TrEMBL record:
Short name of one Pfam family: MiaE
Protein name as it appears in the record: tRNA-(Ms[2]io[6]A)-hydroxylase
Taxonomy, superkingdom: Bacteria
Organism: [Muricauda] lutisoli
Matching SUPFAM superfamilies: Ferritin-like
Amino acid sequence: MLGLKLPTDPRWVNIVEKNIEEILTDHAYCEQKAASTAISLIIGFPEKSELVKEMTALAREEMGHFNMVHDKIINRGWVLGRERKDEYVVELMKFFPKGGSRETHLVHKLLYAALIEARSCERFRLLSEEIDDEELSEFYRNLMVSEANHYTMFLKFARKYGNKEEVDQKWNDLLDYEAQLMKDLGKKETMHG
């Protein structure tokens, strides 16, 4: 359903289980960055009224998720750690060339966001099915549904604002690139790494 070309190795969950505090901190910042992405789309493309409306709702939802993850951290007696660099996103953002029209830039941002949400959804599914911590298993099962909706929304907007055939080709090329990236990732207790 998600179109990912390389699934996460299920052994990634074993790495996560050894440091729940780290994955929760990383996850909290992923939710915050997702809200920031929604806000940056509003700022960059205010004339796209449907996009603005959806991104406003998304920013609220993502900050709600941030708060839920933060509560999990606090309830376990920890504090939110400092933000980590997301190697996955840094490398992913190198795929599309810089420059181009505003419309092209928008389509690229939407495709990046769709893929990040798809990978998050896949990781949440894996955690919901494989993690021994029952509370976190249920938590990630619930979040998985939202992430799937986010992924499809971003893809829908990319197809709306760009040429559908070109967008679909770019999406497939980006999926291939991401699969190559994932071969070197999945060895850390981070949401995407």
